[in-house]
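Next up, sample data:
>
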Amino acid sequence: MVVAATGFFDGVHLGHRKVIGQMCSIARSQGKESMIVTFWPHPRSVLQQDADRLRLLTTLQEKKDLCTSLGVDRFEVIPFNRDFSMLSLGSLWRIIFATGSAYRRLSLGMTIVWVTMPSKAPLR
């Protein structure tokens, strides 16, 4: 099992570092692996017309290196495209859980929003 956090983690700023540190601490205390689940490319670069103005703070490799330097054991990347953006929340869970491990805990980034899931739909 792993303890995981999801998000884009651009720049791996102080807020990201706090989440990652807590995740790694929980994982170590439980004898589990820590894992980041992220997306590439940035959702805005796929979904918005002004994507050419988007400037990321870190490349994917830099982000992976920063996360690893903070103690993250595994770094998984889910390809982001228009089809992926249309998935239901239940489908997203199935993809995330298919990254190879049973999760002990999973922390979602605050900006993860799935608008295709009806508000009263059950999570399946």
User: Anything to note?
Assistant: The first strand starts at residue 2 and ends at 6. The chain has one domain: 2-107. The radius of gyration is 15 Å. Helices lie at 14-29, 43-47, 60-69, 82-85, 89-97.
